[in-house]
Amino acid sequence: MLGDGFAIAPYSVTQRGIYEFERGDLESLNDLTPMQAGPAVAPVAPANENAQRLRDGDGRNKSLFQYLGPQARSCDDREQLLDVARHHAKEAFHDAMPDAEIVRTVDSVWRLQVEGRNRIGLKTGEQQLMISGDVIARLTQNHGLKAAGFYVWARSRFQGLDTFTLPNGLSKTDGIKDISKRDVPACRKALVDEGLIILERRNSHVHGPDLFRWPA
C-alpha cells in the first residue's frame, strides 16, 4: 500500500547502497495472506498533474521544488532528499533533467528545511515545528519522556509568543494527556534547568503565576 510519497522497493540501488529485505524474499510474497478489506483511502492527486508532460523550459524546476518541499520534512539528510529528487525527475519529466539542476533545487529546498523555513505545501496558517533531536534525547535521558513531551507541547502551544505561563493546573485546561498536575512542576523545572525556557518573573499575588520566555 503506497501513499502520496516516495517509495523504494528492495534491490533498488542508490548512491549510498542497496535496499534489501530484512526477512524473506520476493518468493515469500506468494505465502502472504491476501488482504480481504483494506482501509478506505481517498485517492491522492499527484504533486503536479501536468508533470508527465513537462519538458525543458516548461517549469520543471518549479515543479520539482514544489514536490520536494513536503518530501524534505520526511528525509533524514540532504543525500536522502537528493535520491528522492533524482527518482522523481526520472519518472515525472519527459526530457532528462540535468543532474546539476536537480542538485541546485535540492540544495535550495534542504536549506529551507534545516533553517526551519520550509513551508512549501503547507496550508495558510499551518505551522511547522522544528525541534532538534539532540534536545529531545537530552531531555529524555536526563528527565524522562514526560519532560520531552511537555517541551514539544509547549513549543507547539506557545511558539511565537514573547512570554507565557505554565501553571500547575494547565494539564486540565489544555488537555495534556499522561501529564498530571503533579508532573507539571518537575517538567517545568527540567526545561528551566536545560536552558530551554527562561524564568522572566516569579509568581506573586499581584502578577499571578511564573512568567517564562524562550531563549534568544
Write up this protein.
The two termini are 45 Å apart. Helix 1 crosses helix 2. The longest helix is centred in the middle third of the chain and has 16 residues. Helix content is 39%, strand content 6%. It has seven helices and five strands; from the N terminus they run E-E-H-H-H-H-H-E-H-H-E-E. About 6% of the residues have low confidence. It has a three-stranded antiparallel β-sheet with strand order 3-5-4, with no helix packed on it. A two-stranded antiparallel ribbon has the order 1-2. The relative contact order is 0.08. With 216 residues, it is mainly α. A hairpin with a 2-residue loop joins strand 1 and strand 2.
Task: Tell me the structural class.
Answer: mainly alpha
> What's the total number of strands?
5
Average pLDDT score = 79
Radius of gyration: 23 Å
C-alpha termini separation: 45 Å
- The helical percent reads 25-40%
Kindly report the spatial arrangement of strands forming the biggest sheet. 3-5-4
Order of helices and strands: EEHHHHHEHHEE
